[in-house]
Design goal:
The protein is mainly α. Helix content is 56%, strand content 2%. It is elongated, with a radius of gyration of 47 Å. The N and C termini lie far apart (116 Å).
Length: 265
């Protein structure tokens, strides 16, 4: 055995009179006894060599005489033999308990699959399991709806009519369509939707960008220039044609001449 209980108080009370070398010898003898689980060799010199104290055979002999008993098989310790027997008894009990538990589980599984004469045959009249039959909201594409269903399934949040009604109310409050709200949920991993979560975003009401291509081409069409033909004209040239070239900043000479005119005036 590789482990045994060590009672410090009990040990000290029985070994306080030992010299340091004798104390070391006793501890090593106990370790060797428990590890091998058999009597120590009857020869003192052999035992001293086995525990690394060959130069202290006299001390080893003193400890053997006091705490061990010489038998036909070698030096024995009745206290250690009891601990070893108790250790093996616990192992045997644990093994029996484990086998009994495994047998009970095996019997339980066998009982679960035993057919009975009272079992009703399976027919087409059996009612199917209850499944989620919530219909997709109006205006929501099938791809977005399937993505949203998958998201709710992963999050373990079943889709209910009440949940969809809540999302619809918040989407209306935010000025979003139901399609956009569910798409945003899929993108961000939300199982629900709140208007305040998207207060600064409005995909259904895009803001006008005066410097966008669409805005500049619209101006070009209104001015009779037409849309941008990217095949024959560069964008910056087309934009300058529509918007006009910005006035150049006055040079230093022009600024000095203007200042002189104002001074004369």
């Amino acid at each position: 055995m590789h482990y045994y209980q060590f009672n410090i108080g009990d040990y000290v009370s029985h070994t306080r009179h030992l010299s340091p070398i004798e104390d070391i010898a006793y501890r090593r003898l106990l370790d060797a006894y428990y590890l091998s689980e058999r009597p120590l060799n009857s020869g003192v010199a052999v035992v001293a060599r086995q525990i690394g104290l060959r130069d202290y055979q006299e001390e080893v002999a003193v400890v053997l005489d006091e705490f061990f008993k010489l038998s036909e098989d070698g030096w024995i310790s009745s206290r250690a033999d009891k601990e070893i027997a108790h250790f093996h008894s616990k192992i045997e009990q644990a093994s029996k308990a484990g086998k009994a538990s495994a047998e009970r589980r095996s019997n339980a599984r066998s009982t679960d699959v035993q057919p009975t004469n009272n079992q009703e045959p399976i027919t087409n009249n059996h009612k199917p399991k209850n499944t989620n039959t919530v219909a997709p909201p109006d205006g929501v594409t099938d791809s977005v709806w399937q993505d949203f269903k998958t998201l709710r399934k992963v999050k373990k949040a079943p889709i209910t009519n009440a949940a969809l009604d809540g999302i619809q109310r918040e989407a209306t409050k935010a000025g979003w369509s139901m399609e956009s709200a569910l798409k945003e949920c899929c993108t961000r991993g939300w199982v629900g939707f709140k208007a305040e979560w998207v207060a600064k975003t409005a995909p259904d009401k895009p803001q006008y960008d005066p410097d966008s291509r669409a805005a500049i081409e619209s101006e070009g069409i209104k001015k009779g220039i037409g849309p941008w033909n990217e095949g024959i004209e560069q964008w910056h040239a087309y934009k300058a044609k529509v918007r006009g070239k910005p006035e150049a900043a006055p040079s230093l000479a022009q600024l000095m001449a203007l200042a002189k005119q104002r001074k004369v005036a």
